[in-house]
Structures are given as C-alpha cells and as structure tokens.
Design a protein that fits this description.
It is built from three helices and ten strands; from the N terminus they run ββαββββαββββα. By secondary structure, the chain is an alpha+beta fold.
C-alpha cells in the first residue's frame, strides 16, 4: 500500500483477509485474527453472552504487528460473561460546558467506587450551524457494564451528575438504552470520510 507504511520505502501488510473470530466456552478464550474489526468481534460474541476487552469504535481493526518483524496471526483473549448493558450517546448544547466539566471531574473522582461506568466526553465544533454560540456541541458516550436486566428509567449511579434533573439539564437528544455491546459499539461508527 503505497504511502501507508510508517517508514519511507517501507512495507505495510494488509491483514483484512484474516478476520475469523471463535470462542472456546469451556476455557473462556476468544481467538481473533488481526484483520477483524471490533464490531465483527462483538457481533460474534454478544449473541453468545460473552465479551472481551477491546475498542469502542467498531470499524477499528483489532491489531497488527506493532512494527516488529513478525506478523501476528491471532490474538487469544480471556472472554467473560456479559449481559446487556446501559449506554448510548447524549447530546448537549454549549451552555452546559461549565456543568459538564464539573460533572466529568466528579465522575472521574468516583470511578474507584463503581468501576462499571465509562464515559467518553467529546466536544465538537460545527461551522455549519448558523449561530456561532450554538456551534459547540457536546456528545457524552456513556456505558455501564454491570449486569442489567429490563428497562432502565434512571441513569446508573456513576452518571448522577449528568441526569436530566442535574444542573446540566436534559440532553437535546439521546440514544440511551439497555442493549448489547455490539449495538452500542455500532452506534459509534463514523463514515469513512470522517476517519
């Protein structure tokens, strides 16, 4: 792939053809080839009730050789049981910035008390929005991985600073729900032209 390697006149080896995923439920090992994308891995494991530690962006590849001479042909991960989880994206306007920062600091301080919460805090700036003061948009990507069953009508404990009745107020729009890992990961896919 011309222009794609990390060294002048170097070589990049395309591993996209090596994408298989398998699970040995007896010894709880997931075997993943390096050309697989995270969403493919989760689509395979979620229906079986399993997950592995991995990426949140579904279209990102699982791995490569890390600039070593050899080529990695598979990764073995310790798999764990994973039921549906709470998560999704909540969108907020620029007026919430001071409250967002305070809530994010508190969320981070309290992670040791409830390690099941995950928050990716994204600030976006859209020139296409006519009013300059509205161009900053905050996207909070929430996930709570503790086993949850049934509908969730309130935010899980780590996210109490972000609830609709908090100083931040309700999001402009959200996709918050109880769902499987592959569905929540698929929500984060960007169009190729934005990657």
């Amino acid at each position: 792939m011309t222009g794609s390697s990390n060294i002048i006149e170097g070589v990049t080896i395309d591993l996209r053809g090596m994408r298989s995923v398998s699970l040995n439920q007896e010894n709880k090992t997931a075997t993943v080839q390096p050309g697989a994308k995270w969403l493919e891995v989760y689509n395979y494991l979620s229906p079986l009730g399993y997950a592995i530690p991995g990426g949140r962006a579904g279209l990102v590849g699982v791995g490569g050789s890390q600039n070593n001479l050899g080529i990695i042909t598979k990764f073995d991960f310790v798999a764990f049981r994973q039921s549906d989880l709470w998560g999704g994206t909540a969108t907020y306007g620029s007026k919430t910035v001071p409250e967002q920062i305070k809530a994010f600091v508190e969320f981070t301080k309290n992670l040791k008390n409830d390690p099941y919460g995950s928050l990716i805090f994204v600030w976006s700036y859209f020139l296409s929005i006519p009013k300059a003061s509205d161009r900053i948009v905050i996207l909070n990507l929430y996930e709570y991985t503790a086993n949850i069953t049934g509908p969730v009508t309130t935010y899980p404990p780590p996210f109490k600073g972000f609830t609709p009745d908090s100083p931040i107020g309700p999001p402009i729009v959200d996709t918050l729900r109880v769902d499987n890992l592959s569905s929540l990961t698929g929500e984060l896919n960007s169009p190729p032209e934005l990657r």
